[in-house]
Amino acid sequence: MTGRFIKPIITNNISDEVDGDIAGEEPLSPIARIFQSTRLYCPIIYLLGSKTLIDVDAIKFGLNDSFVKHPRFSSLLVTDDKNGGPMSWRRTEVDIHNHVYTPELDPNMESPDTFVEDYVSNLTNTGFDLAKPLWELHVLNVQTSDAGATAVLKYHHSIGDGISFISLLLASSRKASDLKSMPSLPKTKRPASFWNNRHGFWGPIFTICTMILMAFNTFVDMMHLAATALFFKDTDTPIKGVPEIVRLSCKRIVHRIVSFHDIELVKSAMNVTINDVLLGITMAALSRYLNRRYTPVTYGYEKEQDVTSKTYNNLPANIRLRSTMAFNIRPYPGTLPLAEMMKNEAKVRWGNPVSVVIIPITIALLDDPLDYVRKAKAVVDRKKLSFEAISTYSLGRFALKLFGHKLPVAVTYRVASNTTMTFSNIVGPQEEISFYGHHLSYIAPSAYGQPQALTLHWQSYGDKIIFVLTVDPDVIPDYKNLCDDFEASLQLIKDAVIQSGVTGDVV
């Protein structure tokens, strides 16, 4: 474990030259500094499945023309420990051969899927070489069930969040259907303001009442957050590990690909959002899984009715299970072109402008599968009527300036330790893309380093959506069964929508 937390390069001279220019240093952003702390050290791994074998030379040439030119992917992490200076980024020359790894593999190996899973798992237990920029790409030219080959990109979260990376990926890709065209940017709608469409006599009254409600909800949410940081813990369920152990453990990262059209079908029929559906599926899947774990027989599927019917309900009453949810606080909710995000005056900047909100997860066996989506919608709608995310982000920045990084790190760590999991949803390309001549079959993001045994990412990609589980196998040994529960829950919810006869207009 020692290699995971190597101290940054110590430097006392910031006037080194890069490409003939004086290379200044740029301090890490407050959020990036938190991600660099030893207690919340957080790398990101992206699995990029290619439909064909990967041409390593083509990938290196493309990365030199894009990633290497990006300030964060061509900067060293440095600190002036001698003079007590803060961590900073310093531009440097990048040798692409030191960042791309191509192990020799047996194309006829017995289980390629297991090999790739094991390889990625080992990456979660190794650190970065801090003598070079904090990213690396591993090319695994072996065919799996989902791809002809897999590229595994690992970079540190302090470089940028998932939305930032998707903007870089889109800038480095072309449409798979038209290699001369850039991919379309994901369509996202700006949330409707409660000021809109409120005219006439009741308009001002409605606005005042809504503002009072939002102020009250924000106060309650911030008190809830404070209580969680101090003493308010989740129930010790079979998926909640010991924070100090799971934070450092070797993780397993697994994914499944499902139809985005199925998600849209439920969304349209129930008049909800994509997030509502994904959170509802999560509630249903975790309820099924935990019911099985509490069943005093086996983890297997011998008694399918045990996880679907209240008759065989083995769940304890009043389980408190909450998730931290990454919340994008950029003023524009979608992904902008990379060039726009890199402008100094841009409103939607590259980096980590994210906050955290706490989401309650319903754990229960419900007769109607659609009730999981309804409960999820109620949770999400309630969070929309609160400034919890903005308040948390603002207080964090204020605490960083006033007390340094130790207090925000301690609070963030305690919140994560007292909750059970992390939930994230990232909007991806609208159509399938070609990454330097390689048609991608899927994109699967993950992150690790937080003191939780389960992290869930949802990633849209064309007409697919990929859910990715990052788990501590000592806490969740049957994680593939948990993947099955997610697929089964989506199918149950979809079937319930079809049986209701209300399918709406899927667009």
From TrEMBL:
Task: From the record, give the transmembrane residue ranges.
Answer: 201-220
Q: Does the keyword Nucleus apply?
A: no
Q: Which UniProt keywords apply?
A: Acyltransferase, Endoplasmic reticulum, Membrane, Transferase, Transmembrane, Transmembrane helix
Localization, per the record, is: Cell membrane; Endoplasmic reticulum membrane
Q: Which GO terms describe its cellular component?
A: endoplasmic reticulum membrane; plasma membrane
Name the Pfam families on file.
WS_DGAT_C, WS_DGAT_cat
Q: Where is the O-acyltransferase WSD1-like N-terminal domain?
A: 69-277
Q: What is this protein called?
A: O-acyltransferase WSD1-like
